[in-house]
Amino acid sequence: MTTKAVVPCMDTTVRCIEACERCAAECGTSGDREREKCAVLARDCADIASLSLTLMSRQSRYADAICAAHEQACLACAEMCAKFKHACCVECMNACRACAKECGTYHG
Q1: What pLDDT digit, counting tens, does each position of 71-105 carry?
Q2: C-alpha span between 108 and 99 (Å, rounded)
Q3: Residue 86 — left, alpha, or beta (φ > 0 → left; ψ -120 to 50 → alpha)?
Q4: What is the domain extent for residue 87?
Q5: Residue 6 above 90 pLDDT?
Q6: Which of 56, 78, 81, 102 is a Cys-bridge partner for 96, taking CB atoms 3.0 to 4.6 Å apart?
Q7: What is the pLDDT of residue 70?
């Protein structure tokens, strides 16, 4: 059973995964080399987020470490997305920032 303390982090993590996947799909097929780099970072962030969500769900002793890595990935992804004005990048940037902020309180 998941503790109530991590539920907000889990909620923002789900939104982060969704936004990162949308950004990766759009930027990855844009034909723009810089946006393709954005897509790679967004995919990494989504993958780390998925693992952190799984570990939080089962209250793994490794959740803190993976959540810390996820926070770093979110911050890096948000920074990359901030370079672009495309809707997918703006959405991803906002989701990553919110996730880093919320989940930073979980593992911190």
Answers
A1: 999 999 999 999 999 999 999 999 999 999 998 76
A2: 13
A3: beta
A4: 4-107
A5: no
A6: 78
A7: 95
What's the domain count of the chain?
1
**pTM of the entire structure?**
0.91
Cβ neighbors of 76 (< 8 A, separation 6 or more) are 41, 45
Whole-number Å distance between alpha carbons of 3 and 18: 23
Closest CA to 62 of 71, 52, 70, 72: 52
What confidence tens digit (pLDDT) does each residue in 13-46 have?
A: 999 999 999 999 999 999 999 999 999 999 999 9
* Dist CA 64 CA 104 (whole Å): 10
Number of H helices, E strands in the chain: 4, 0
In the numeric block, which tokens belong to residue 95? 């989701």
The domain that holds 58 is classified in CATH as: 1.20.1270.360
